[in-house]
Amino acid sequence: MTMTENTGSTSATSSFWQRTWHGLQATVNAHPVAAFIGLLLLVRCGFILFSPLDLIADESYYWDWSRRLDYGYYSKPPMIAWINWLSTSLLGSSEFAVRLPAALLGTFGLLWIYYLGRQMFDSKTGLLAAALLALTPGQTALSFLMTIDAPFLFCWVAALYCFWQMLQHERPPLYWCGFTMLFLGLGLLSKQTMLGFFPLVGLFLLATPAKRHFLLSGRLWGTAVASLMFLIPVVYWNYQHDWITLEHTASHFSDSSVTYWKQFVRFAEFFFGQIGVVSPVLWGVVCVVLLAAFRRFPQLKAEERYLLCMSGVPLIAIFCLSATRRLEPNWPAACYPAGVILASAVLLGRSSLLNVFQRPTHHLKWCWRVGLTGSALTYAAITIVPASPLAGSPVDITCRLRGWRELAHQFESVQEQQAGVNGEYPLIISTAGRDITSALAFYLPQNPLVPFWNHDEAGVTCQYDMWDRPDVASHRDILVVKPEGTPLPVSLEQTAASWEPVADLNVSLGGNRQRAYQVIRLIPASASTAATPSADSVDKTATLPDQPTSPTLR
């Protein structure tokens, strides 16, 4: 090939990439929202696909629910189990299948933020609010982990938008009533917190004279009642199970017996946790804007009052509650979308809240910079810290996402060894809590149903306690996983002719942190005299306990 031909080939390649780059720029300029959502979804799905991290205990726990579909569960409504069932039925039981809905719901939920910001102010405000929320560490994590917050927050922001659209007409159109009803109902099936939507919008209507007449709207009341009808199956299920979900929910608000100093430390943890979840600059900007909105409430427009009632009011209530008892950092998650939309409007000069910041452009730049840095650090902490000397340290946020697969692998080796000796795979029972129970169920081959046998005096502490215990007498050999240094439950020990420790399970998480369990081989009394088959007849199918028909409380 001559020099001229080489030069021509290089020029053609360069021209191709230039045209491609200019084409991408034109597409982004013409469709910025679609480009933003598409790129974000690609990054999030790619991270889930290639992430080496295990499911956290909550994820495998909710996944285990999906194998026994119902209208209610011990601590939560059924939506999380239904979504897990749909995803894993289509894609198989894998980490990607479990977490994909979180990425889809978290990313597409930003579209509702964009549409609401555009409806109230302009498209630039909507896009800024969606982008700032997407860059918060909390939204990054909630789009990676499949917990109940993924469907709940999607339904919350969708209902925010649809309800506002209802109020744009003197007589709310039936289609907007229907969409509002749908998302409120699905939100109620996702998390009990969705009930807070009703008093908050009621407060907004009372506090806004221009919208107060909607309190007499039959369509508005019909929408509210119709959405509450979604709870009928959940209420009926709770009626059948002694109102166990209500009892569990009420326990979050029961009186705490800790000292004042201990409660102050908890409040400080919650307070600074919110700064970390939202990112420091954006959280500060949102708080300043909300305080300014409270001070100038009489001058606020209807849309600003709506955003304030759906963000500032519940935030104050939650922070007051956090001063009296321990709260999880995700409790205020639904408050921030409306607050960020209002803050974005103020920073861009689209709000009636003027002169809140002397240099709004300066604050906007720092929101971008710190948000982008925080999001990048979140991904880095998830992927880099576990392989660094910081593994297991207080800054390692991945300890909950590591060690479960390795524990299951160690247990599988013990299981194979016992099967080779005794001629069949033993029944698995866990007495070590729901975390290891659900992890073994997910990570062991063939996903066996692993029953949890709680200590007799513990009562009902999780969904596993509501499912029937296995018939121990029908099994020849049982492997029990229990915490190190703890006795077997008395009721389980009484079923045994003999038992002996056979292995220890230990996985180091770095530093001094580890997961440690003990495996006990238990011979039921009814099987102590039965003949043992030869090792050549080993059944290679994991033993599954019978599915329950009518769960009973203990």
UniProtKB/TrEMBL annotation:
Q: Which GO terms describe its biological process?
A: lipopolysaccharide biosynthetic process
Q: Which residues cross the membrane?
A: 33-57, 96-115, 150-167, 173-206, 218-239, 270-294, 306-324, 330-349
Q: Name one Pfam family in it.
A: PMT_2
An example Gene Ontology CC term for this record: plasma membrane
The cross-references to PANTHER family, in alphabetical order and at most eight, read:
MANNOSYLTRANSFERASE YKCB-RELATED, MEMBRANE PROTEIN
Upper classification of the source organism reads: Bacteria, Pseudomonadati, Planctomycetota, Planctomycetia, Planctomycetales
Supply the InterPro entries for this chain.
LipidA_mod_glycosyltrf_83 (IPR050297), RgtA/B/C-like (IPR038731)
Query: Does the keyword section mention RNA-binding?
Result: no
Domain Glycosyltransferase RgtA/B/C/D-like, chain residue ranges per copy: 75-237
Q: Where is the composition biased (Polar residues)?
A: 544-554
**Record's keyword terms, sorted:** Cell membrane, Glycosyltransferase, Membrane, Transferase, Transmembrane, Transmembrane helix
Q: What is this protein called?
A: Glycosyl transferase family 39
Instruction: Please give one Gene Ontology molecular function term for this protein.
Output: pentosyltransferase activity
Give the start-end ranges of region Disordered. Answer: 531-554
Report membrane topology.
Multi-pass membrane protein
- Subcellular location as annotated: Cell membrane
Top-level taxon: Bacteria
